[in-house]
Every structure is written in C-alpha cells, then in structure tokens.
Design goal:
mainly alpha, single chain
Length: 106
C-alpha cells in the first residue's frame, strides 16, 4: 500500500481482517471504516465492522453497521452466509456469526 497509493479497498479489508482474526478489534475498526468510506457498498467490510464493534462492546455502532448490511443486501441471511464462510476454524466462524447475531442480523 505504501508503493501504490491507488490500491483497491480490498487491500485495506485484508489488513483489517488480519487484525480482527488476531483479536486486535480496536485496530481493525478504523481500517474497516476507511474501506467503507472509499466504497460505501463493501458488504464484507460492514460485516467485519459489525462483528468488531460487538467484540469491543459498541452495540449501537454494531447495529448501525448491521443496518448498512441490510441496505446493501436486503435479503442477507446469517444462515445462508454461514455455509459460505471461508474459514475452516469452527471457533472463528462461530464467534463471527454470534457477533453478527448480537448486532441484530438474523
């Protein structure tokens, strides 16, 4: 990213997701916010943002992110998304989806 100032939002998303997976939620949140500033319809960033907010106890912010998820994808379903998770570690998947449930997604 230092060498290419015109990097895609997915570069930032990968950095934010790395922090989130390491449990560095306070570091992940501003990165995901930068992604959605650059691309307001970046669904996966809102998902990770909502989960990260829950993990840091910011319920209202998580609910706002959940509303953005539903704005982008009105038919979003945790049940359907659960089967599409790229993570093999069941603990990571369950933590993510439990956080999203707490944010108000079904």
């Amino acid at each position: 990213m230092r060498l290419n100032p015109r990097y895609t939002p997915n570069y930032l998303w990968a950095l934010g997701n790395a922090h989130r997976l390491l449990g560095n939620y306070d570091q992940a949140i501003p990165i995901f916010k930068r992604v959605v500033t650059r691309n307001p319809d970046h669904l996966v960033s809102y998902l990770m943002l909502a989960a990260s907010y829950i993990e840091t106890g910011r319920i209202e912010a998580a609910q706002a992110a959940a509303q953005e998820i539903l704005r982008i994808s009105p038919n979003y379903s945790l049940e359907l998304a659960h089967g599409r998770s790229p993570y093999r570690d069941a603990e990571v998947v369950e933590l993510q989806y439990e956080s999203l449930r707490q944010a108000g997604l079904e």
